[in-house]
Design goal:
The complex is a heterodimer.
Chain A: E1 4-9, H1 14-24, E2 29-35, H2 39-48, E3 55-57, H3 60-66, E4 72-75, H4 79-91, E5 95-98, H5 106-119, E6 123-125, H6 133-143, E7 150-156, E8 158-159, H7 172-176, H8 193-196, H9 199-208, E9 212-218, E10 234-239, E11 244-248, E12 269-270, E13 273-277, E14 280-284, E15 290-293, E16 305-308, H10 319-327, H11 337-356, E17 360-361
Parallel strand pairs in A: 1-2, 1-4, 2-3, 4-5, 5-6, 7-11
Antiparallel strand pairs in A: 7-13, 8-12, 9-10, 9-17, 10-11, 13-14, 15-16
Helix pairs in contact in A: 4-5, 5-11
Chain B: E1 6-10, H1 16-26, E2 29-33, E3 45-47, H2 57-63, E4 66-69, H3 71-76, E5 85-87, H4 95-105, E6 112-122, H5 129-148, E7 152-159, E8 165-172, E9 177-186, E10 193-200, E11 203-206, E12 220-223, E13 227-228, H6 246-256, H7 266-279
Parallel strand pairs in B: 1-2, 1-3, 3-4, 4-5, 6-9
Antiparallel strand pairs in B: 6-10, 7-8, 8-9, 10-11, 12-13
Helix pairs in contact in B: 4-5
Classes of the chains: A alpha/beta, B alpha/beta.
Chain lengths: 363, 287
C-alpha cells in the first residue's frame, strides 16, 4: 500500500511530538513537512528531523502552498486555529487527521462536517484510547452481553497538567477558543481539564453505543493557583437508555512546576473504565500492564513513576495505520468528525452545567 | 474501656451477635433490655444504631443519659436532644479518613480542593435499600463533610433505579468538590473496596492503589461465578495469561524478523543448570 503523504500544521498540541518518532520510518504515512510558528516548538522539530527530508516551515499557509502533493493534514495547532486550518485543508481536498477536538465551537464543527462530506475526504479525530486493547476488550465484553444489562459506567481520565511545558494549554483563548469563565465571575476560564480530555466523553458512546442524554457537573477549586483554566471537573448523568455515567477528566495528578515533564504524582495518567451490569462487572485502567521506573535518564528523572510495559497485539492497529487504511479505502474511519462533534457537545454541556449549577439535557 | 463499662441493647437488636462479640472484645457488659418501660437502667449509654429508624426514640432518650442512633433516627429528632445523642457515623473512625483530616490540619499538602470516594461492595454484602441511602450514603456524605471541614452546599445524586448503585456530586461552602461512587451491586465473587483520594494544592493523600485493581496487574472481569484479572494483549485473543501469551508473541517476532536466530547459548545454559544441580557447587563459566 502506498504510504499516505502528510503535512503537520502546528505542533502546539503535546501529542504531535508523540508522533515524530513513529513518523521517521512509517510504512503507512510519509511525513513531508511540519509548520510551527512558535520558535521553541519549531526548533524542536528541526532538531528531531535533522538529516531527514522533512521540511520545516514557520507558516502553515506557506507549507500548504509548497506541498500540493500532500494527501493529508494533521492539524496540531492550538484549538483556536483548528477551524481555519481544517477548513483550508478541506477546501484543498486533504484528508484530515485531527488532534483531539475539531473545535470547541459546535457551529464550526458542523460546518466542517458539511464540507468534509462535500469534499469526500477522510476525517479522523484522534481518540486514541480506541486502540488500547484493554478498552477494546471491554467494548467486546459489553457488546457480547457478558455483563447483561448495563447499569452504570464510570470513566476517569485523570492526568497531570501539561501547562508547565506547553503553556499555551493554560490560555483559555488558545485552548477553548473563547475566554468564558468556568463559573460566572470567575477568573478561571474554560479550556482546561475538560477540553484536554475528550476521551471519556467519547468512550461512553463508543463502548455503549448510547448518546449522553443529561449532564450535571461541578468544578472544584483549582489545585494550581497559577492555572487560568479549570483543573478539576466531575460530571455525572444519564445516557439515552437510562444508564448512569460518571466522568472525571481532571488534572489531579500533580506535576512539578518545571519546563520539562516532571511528575510529582507517580502516575501520569489514570483512565479507569468500570462498567456494572446485571450479570457482571469489568474494569480496566490505562497502566494495567505496568512497570515502575526510577531512572536518572528517563522522563521525570529521579522520580519513581508508573509507566506501561509493552503489549504485543496481532489484530491491533495503531492510529496512523488505521487512518492510512481508511484513506486507501481499506477500512472505515475509526473516529469520525461526527464522533468528534458528539464528544464536543457533551463537553460543552458539562461546561454549561458547571456554569449554571443546573442539569443540562442534550437533544 | 475506662469510661464505658456497659451499654444497653434492645433484645431485638438486628446486630446482636456482632455487638456481643464487640463488647466482649472491649470488655463492656451488654445490658439487654426487654421492656424499656420496666427496665432498671444501669448503663449510661443505649445503642440503637443498628435499627434503621426508631420512631418512638423519645422514650429511650428519657430513660438513658446517652443514646447512639442511626442517621435516619437522628434526622427526625428534636434539637433539644442534641446533647443526649451520638449519631452513628462510624466511618469517621476509618484510618485513611482520620489520616487525611490530621494531615490536612497540619497543612502537609496545602489547601484541600476535591475528594473522591469509592465504595464498592459485592451484592452478597449489600445493605437493604433503606439502609443504603440512610446509613451507607449518609455515612459517606458525613465522611466527606468531616474531611472537607465545611458545611454542605449542594448534593446531586444519579441513582440506578431500584439498586444500591449511585454516583454523587457534592460541593461544600469552602468550594471543595466531592465525588461519590457507591456501588453495592457487584458480583458475588468480588470483595469490597473502599478508597479515598483527597486532592490538595500541594499534594495528594490516598489509599487507592497506584496501578491495577487492588495492586494486581491486568483488567478485572467478574460475574457471580468467577473473578479474573485478564491481561489483555489483544482484544480478539481469548487468552489472558501474560506469560502464556509470550509464545504467540514469539511467533510474531519471528514473522517480523525481530526475533534472533540461532542456538542462543542453549548448550551453555542447559549444561550449566544440570551441572549446578548435580554438583551443588558454583559452576564457573569463565574459563
Amino acid at each position: 500500500m502506498k504510504p499516505v503523504s502528510m503535512i503537520i500544521a502546528g505542533a502546539a498540541n503535546p501529542h504531535v511530538r508523540n508522533y515524530y518518532n513513529g513518523l521517521k520510518n512509517n510504512k503507512f504515512v510519509k511525513l513531508l513537512a511540519i509548520a510551527e510558528n512558535d520558535k521553541v516548538r519549531r526548533e524542536y522539530a528541526i532538531k528531531f528531523f535533522e538529516g531527514t527530508d522533512v521540511k520545516i516551515y514557520s507558516d502553515w499557509k506557506i507549507m500548504f502552498d509548497k506541498h500540493p502533493e500532500a494527501e493529508a493534514v494533521m492539524p496540531g495547532a492550538d484549538n483556536l486555529y483548528h477551524f481555519e486550518i481544517i477548513k483550508e485543508a478541506l477546501l484543498r481536498k486533504k484528508h484530515i487527521y485531527s488532534m483531539k477536538v475539531i473545535s470547541m465551537d459546535e457551529g464550526e464543527c458542523r460546518e466542517i462536517i458539511v464540507l468534509r462530506k462535500k469534499q469526500k475526504v477522510i476525517f479522523q479525530v484522534e481518540l486514541e484510547l480506541h486502540f488500547c486493547q484493554q478498552y477494546n476488550y471491554i467494548k467486546k465484553v459489553v457488546s457480547e452481553g457478558k455483563l447483561g444489562d448495563i447499569k452504570s459506567i464510570y470513566i476517569s481520565n485523570v492526568s497531570q497538567s501539561p501547562i508547565c511545558y506547553f503553556p499555551n494549554w493554560g490560555d483559555p483563548l488558545l485552548s477553548y477558543g473563547k475566554d468564558i469563565p468556568i463559573h460566572p465571575g470567575s477568573k478561571i476560564g474554560r479550556g482546561g481539564a475538560i477540553t484536554d480530555h475528550p476521551h471519556p466523553f467519547d468512550l461512553v458512546h463508543w463502548i455503549t453505543g448510547q448518546d449522553i442524554k443529561k449532564v450535571f457537573a461541578v468544578s472544584g477549586k483549582n489545585q494550581r493557583d497559577y492555572l487560568k483554566v479549570e483543573d478539576h471537573a466531575a460530571i455525572t448523568g444519564e445516557l439515552a437508555n437510562g444508564v448512569k455515567f460518571f466522568i472525571n477528566p481532571s488534572y489531579s495528578n500533580l506535576e512539578e512546576k518545571a519546563e520539562t515533564r516532571r511528575l510529582y504524582w507517580p502516575k501520569s495518567l489514570e483512565v479507569s473504565v468500570k462498567i456494572t451490569g446485571s450479570k457482571g462487572y469489568v474494569a480496566a485502567d490505562y497502566f494495567d500492564k505496568h512497570i515502575y521506573v526510577l531512572g536518572n535518564n528517563y522522563v521525570s528523572p529521579d522520580r519513581l513513576i508508573v509507566d506501561g510495559a509493552p503489549r504485543t497485539s496481532y489484530t491491533g492497529q495503531n492510529l496512523l495505520m488505521s487512518f492510512a487504511l481508511a484513506v486507501r479505502g481499506k477500512r472505515k474511519v475509526e473516529s469520525s468528525a461526527e464522533d468528534g462533534l458528539r464528544t464536543v457537545r457533551a463537553m460543552n454541556a458539562a461546561y454549561e452545567s458547571i456554569s449554571t449549577g443546573k442539569i443540562v439535557y442534550l437533544k | 474501656m475506662d469510661n464505658v463499662k456497659s451499654i444497653g441493647l434492645l433484645q431485638d437488636d438486628p446486630a446482636m451477635e456482632y455487638k456481643k462479640k464487640v463488647f466482649k472484645f472491649l470488655e463492656v457488659k451488654p445490658e439487654i433490655i426487654k421492656d424499656i418501660g420496666k427496665h432498671k437502667r444501669k448503663a449510661t449509654i443505649l445503642d440503637l444504631s443498628s435499627f434503621p429508624e426508631i420512631k418512638d426514640a423519645a422514650k429511650y432518650l428519657e430513660k438513658f443519659p446517652k443514646v447512639i442512633v442511626s442517621p435516619l433516627t437522628a434526622s427526625k429528632l428534636d434539637s433539644k436532644y442534641n446533647s443526649k445523642v451520638y449519631t452513628a457515623y462510624p466511618l469517621r473512625q476509618w484510618g485513611i479518613a482520620k489520616k487525611i483530616v490530621d494531615m490536612s490540619e497540619k497543612n502537609i499538602c496545602g489547601d484541600m480542593t476535591s475528594i473522591r470516594i469509592l465504595w464498592s461492595v459485592p451484592k452478597k454484602l449489600s445493605s437493604d435499600k433503606k439502609s443504603f441511602l440512610n446509613s451507607t450514603v449518609a455515612g459517606l456524605v458525613d465522611l466527606s463533610k468531616y474531611m472537607a471541614k465545611s458545611q454542605l452546599k449542594m448534593i446531586y445524586l444519579e441513582k440506578v433505579k431500584n439498586e444500591n448503585n449511585l454516583f454523587g456530586l457534592l460541593t461544600y461552602r469552602n468550594d471543595i468538590a466531592v465525588e461519590l461512587e457507591i456501588n453495592e451491586t457487584l458480583p458475588k465473587t468480588m470483595e469490597p473496596s473502599h478508597f479515598i483520594k483527597a486532592n490538595f494544592k500541594n499534594g495528594i493523600l490516598t489509599n487507592m492503589p497506584l496501578v491495577g485493581h487492588h495492586n494486581e496487574e491486568g483488567s478485572l472481569f467478574a460475574d457471580d461465578k468467577k473473578l479474573i484479572h485478564p491481561l489483555i494483549e489483544d482484544a480478539q485473543w481469548d487468552g489472558f495469561d501474560e506469560i502464556e501469551n509470550t509464545y504467540w508473541q514469539m511467533l510474531m517476532a519471528i514473522n517480523s524478523g525481530t526475533y534472533p536466530q540461532g542456538l542462543l547459548d542453549s548448550r551453555i545454559i542447559i549444561d550449566a543448570i544440570n551441572n549446578a544441580v548435580k554438583n551443588e557447587e558454583p559452576v564457573n563459566l569463565e574459563c
